[in-house]
Specification:
Layout lengths: L1 E3 L12 E5 L7 H16 L3 E8 L2 H5 L11 H10 L4 E6 L2 H4 L3 H13 L1 E7 L12 H11 L3 E4 L3 E2 L2 E2 L2 H9 L3 H8 L3 E6 L7 H5 L4 E3 L11 E9 L2 E10 L10 E6 L10 E11 L7 H21 L1 H9 L5
Amino acid sequence: MKIYNSLADIPAPFDKSFVTIGNFDGVHLGHQMLFAEVVSRARQGQGTSVAVTFEPHPLQVVRPEIGLKLISSYEQKVEMITIAGIDVLVVIPFTREFAATGAETFVDEVLVGTIGIRELVVGYDYAFGKGRQGDIGFLKEQGLRKGFPVTVVEPYYVDSILVSSSKVRELVRDGRMMDVRKLLGRSYQIRGTVQEGRKRGGPVVGFKTANLHLAEEDLCPKHGVYVTQVVYEGKCYGGVMNIGYNPTFGEDKLSVETHIFDFNKDIYGKKIKINLLKHLRGEKRFSGPEELSAQIREDIRQAREILARAREELQLSCEEKYNR
């Protein structure tokens, strides 16, 4: 996939551009349906499939007060769009100046003039431009006037749940990771570089942990203990992860600590990926390290049982492209 990080980087309109536009946070199953439709139409028309997105997320610019937390990092979003088979990704830097662009100006200068649109595929609720003027009705009218048909992909439901980025965020905050997987088509994943913690895991509690920092812009799952898969250098390991404030030790800093099963490598400074599979329990204060250690042993026992029961499914999950 060819990536353009600015409209100015595009030397000429693409050949027969079949385009979709969106923020695509999480690249959930609804987004994946959009990409599949665009790729299919581009192949049938012997053209170029193009996805247009924005960085940062527009709401982080025009409504910073709401503190929008993202399901996926920019890196994850690009990976998933690549996997979807899109030929070209256009990433438009979103600024307050760009936010003032009128809907018709965007169509004329970006879609028609720069990208050379042949067809447009959008989700049922898509709107863009200043004041969200560019809704579905506007796009269809523009398409009729300017020569590009508009296809609207209908809402997608899983178990009667509407697949949307806002719903995924809600489920992540509630710790409902099995439902999150249904909407994403994959496990919810945290990524990061392993950092040195307070080194209590091994010496004090008896279980070594890999510690990650959760960035301010990251979506924070429900606090507590999770069954996890840890991906390191293309290999998958079972694990248990605690996300929270370590109340037993009276800390006030959010931490993400993962004990990796059957693993004894020095990974300080190394990147890992953590798939959150199931929320086991909430975070609680224990009387001291001994009681905490006993609870962790029980968490590990339960986690190993869950991982063993879902061995085949989880093995496939580990082999998926986005875990490599």
